[in-house]
Amino acid sequence: MNKNKPWNKYIAQKIAKKESIDITKDHWEVIYTIRDFYLKFNITPSMRILMKLMEKKNLKKMTSCYLFKLFPRGPVQQASKIAGIPKPSSCF
Fold first, then answer.
1. pLDDT of residue 6
2. Is the dihedral of CA 90, 10, 8, 51 positive or negative?
3. Which of 15, 22, 27, 49 supports an S-S bond with 45, CB 3.0-4.6 Å?
4. Known catalytic residue at 91
């Protein structure tokens, strides 16, 4: 996360547009979940952790397949980029 550039929804929408994503309510759910986790633990969640977080929120439709439909270039990588946080260390 670049501390010199504050993140907001407008910035997220600009990044998403460059990624060819039209942000929906489901996109925001993932973006804010990833962002909240990062701000709390100072680490970007892995896909496994993201799935557990979605499960805790009782979002049963947020399967890994569905997340890939929302973020075709990789749910964690692409959502992290839009959320303004670093990609996970497990991403190459």
1. 86
2. negative
3. 49
4. yes
Report helix, strand and coil shares of the chain as percent, to nearest 5. 60, 0, 40
Whole-number Å distance between alpha carbons of 2 and 66 = 29
Distance in Å from the first CA to the final CA of the chain: 18
Q: What is the pLDDT of residues 35-83, one digit of tens each?
A: 999 999 999 999 999 999 998 888 778 889 999 999 999 999 999 999 9
Q: Which of 28, 26, 75, 71 shows the shortest CA–CA distance to 50? A: 75
- Active-site residue among 18, 41, 72, 91? 91
Token pair of 15, please? 């990044």
For 86, counting Cβ atoms within 10 Å of its Cβ (0-12 exposed, 13-18 middle, 19+ buried), the class is middle
- Find the largest Cα–Cα distance for the chain: 36
